[in-house]
Design goal:
three-stranded mixed β-sheet, 42% helix, 12 strands, 366 residues, alpha/beta, flat
């Protein structure tokens, strides 16, 4: 089960530097010119979770395997991308394949790094890309409407409901608002998702600042924070150059000392990863044993058999029950056996709604 976030932004805002730091590789070429990233680079990163280390310690596990999140570095968009400007069509197609958008905004001055529009203004930059996504969505929607109208003339029962939904979406897009602003009820969610609209994807604004502003932000980041709050979106502040430095340090102790020296408690990347994880409506469950302690990803609202299926499809097909211990109970008791003896292990069936931090042993029969 893969979940990914597309990193987007105008050229020269620090996207590729951020991606390099996220994946601790030089896979994406960070250079001072537009379109230095021609093909989308993909990297998988571990989701930071201190609970996994504690579980492994108590379970005396030989290895630790964190859950992962995928990031896609997408080349810089420019005004007119929806009409094919720059490498627009290719880049928009790359965004379509992602589950969420991490929008990097330049919130720093640097005379050595050219801004494609000649000045720093993160709100203008955000609106430029948002409008390109909206314009691309309007083209996509027109095609969907034409197809649905044909089906409606052929007495297709679902076509009317589709047309009703698309009319509401069209109103929102024509008002210059992203598709994620459309009110969609439970029965319409699948139809809405099938429209594959770029501006329907959840978004995290990442303010890229200079080192001096990494801890507290600046006037530009305050404006982005206000924009995010008004939209019900998320935002965070990082200095991509600092993150690149941290990613090259070899030991955890070196990284800790470096962070302390500049007044930071943790790498900004950790915040991006956690917020990206939350943006996708994901949660973590664990398995633990002598061989390994492992974190797994499942969507919030999933039931026990679906969690079992994240490990192996056979586990879901032949699901019998999930022997379950809550993380807090596991730690308080001092491990699995002690938790069992304390009566903290529960037998959960097919209708059990998974909870973040649950530790499972799945029983199945295939």
């Amino acid at each position: 089960m893969g979940f990914n976030c597309g990193i987007v932004g105008l050229p020269n805002v620090g996207k590729s530097t951020l991606f390099n730091a996220l994946t601790a590789t030089a896979a994406a070429q960070a250079a001072n010119f537009p379109f230095c990233t021609i093909e989308p680079n993909v990297g998988r990163v571990a989701v930071p979770d201190d609970r996994l280390n504690k579980i492994a310690e108590l379970g005396k596990s030989a290895s630790i395997i964190p859950t992962q999140l995928e990031f896609v570095d997408i080349a810089g968009l420019v005004k007119g991308a929806s009409k094919g400007e720059g490498l627009g069509n290719q880049f928009l197609a790359n965004i379509r394949e992602t589950d969420a958008i991490i929008h990097v905004l330049r919130c720093f001055e640097d005379g050595d790094i050219t801004h494609v529009d000649g000045s720093v203004d993160p709100i203008r930059d955000a609106e430029t890309i948002e409008m390109e996504l909206i314009l691309a969505d309007m083209d996509t929607l027109e095609k969907h409407i034409a197809n649905a109208e044909k089906k409606a003339r052929g007495q297709d029962k679902d076509a009317k409901a589709q047309l009703d939904l698309m009319a509401r979406v069209k109103d929102v897009l024509e008002a210059g608002k992203p598709a994620r602003n459309v009110d969609v009820d439970e029965d319409e969610r699948r139809m809405f998702k099938n429209l594959q609209l770029l501006s329907s994807k959840p978004i995290l604004y990442v303010c890229n600042v200079n080192e001096d502003d990494a801890a507290q932000g600046n006037e530009w980041t305050k404006k982005v924070a206000a924009k995010a709050e008004a939209e019900g979106a998320e935002y965070t502040i990082i200095c991509a150059a600092i993150e690149a430095e941290i990613s090259q340090l070899e030991t955890a102790e070196d990284k800790k000392e470096f962070l302390e020296s500049i007044g930071l408690e943790e790498p900004g990347l950790n915040k991006i990863i956690r917020k990206g994880y939350a943006l996708l409506n994901l949660m973590t469950f664990f398995t633990v044993g002598p061989k390994e302690a492992r974190a797994w990803t499942v969507r919030k609202g999933s039931k026990a058999p679906q969690a079992a299926g994240a490990i192996h499809t056979d586990f879901e097909k032949g699901f019998i029950r999930a022997e379950t211990i809550a993380y807090d109970d596991f730690v308080a008791a001092g491990g699995e056996q002690a938790a069992k003896e304390a009566g903290k292990m529960r037998q959960e069936g097919k209708e059990y709604l998974c909870k973040d931090g649950d530790i499972y042993l799945f029983r199945f029969n295939v």
